[in-house]
Amino acid sequence: MSAVSFTLNAQARTDEGKGASRRLRRLEAKLPAVIYGGSEPAQSITLELKELVKALENEAFYSHVLTINIDGKPQQAVIKDLQRHPAKNTPMHADFLRIDATHKLVMKVPLHYTHQDTCVGVKQEGGAISIMASEVEISCLPANLPEFIEVNLQDIHVGTTLHLSSITLPAGVEIPALALGHDHDQPIANVHKSTADA
Q1: Within a 10 A sphere around the Cβ of 12, how many other Cβ atoms?
Q2: Which of 134, 113, 108, 133 is nearest to 187 (CA)?
Q3: What is the CATH number of domain 105-197?
Q4: Which 3 state secondary structure label does DSSP give 68?
Q5: Which of these, 97, 122, 94, lies nearest to 191 by C-alpha position?
Q6: Which of 54, 60, 101, 107 has the fewest C-beta atoms under 10 angstroms from its C-beta?
Q7: Tens digit of pLDDT for each residue in 140-166?
Q8: Residues of the chain with pLDDT under 50
Q9: Is the dihedral of CA 122, 127, 128, 133 positive or negative?
Q10: Class of domain 7-98
Q11: CATH 2.40.240.10 region(s) of the chain?
Q12: Are 166 and 188 in contact (CB under 8 A)?
């Protein structure tokens, strides 16, 4: 696990509705959000927009247990949904899920493909790599949540396709799709003959 940690400061929000949300974003540079799950009811909150935007620059934010201080009271949560402005790409609304150390989470985490430049199929066989999946949905307890999962391409030959089942998972981490049967073992990357040779 990495040493990266994320803490966001938030305030409970009572004025709800589209007009109130627009006002927040425009006048106060704050972002409307909701936190739900666990034994408590869903709660509307507001976040500092610039604090969230800065955190979002780090890929790890999306697959990390976050601390959200709501009026000074810390809650552990993960981000479940982020709506962005279609043209400006600025965050418009965020959904956070409270976590419980004893309940498994289902989260998408990034796949990091390593040794692409030294891959046997590329370096010795003149092939090219196609990446088909940049993230994978996993299930695990919050304590086991990986920031990302590495896929080592070092020994992959031309003509080889890697699937979800090819991923070496960290301890305590599962891929729910694989429990659904062979049909759900999606391809994630392959090494193929380079079209430059054709």
Answers
A1: 12
A2: 133
A3: 2.170.120.20
A4: strand
A5: 122
A6: 101
A7: 999 999 999 999 999 999 999 999 999
A8: 1-2, 198
A9: negative
A10: mainly beta
A11: 7-98
A12: yes
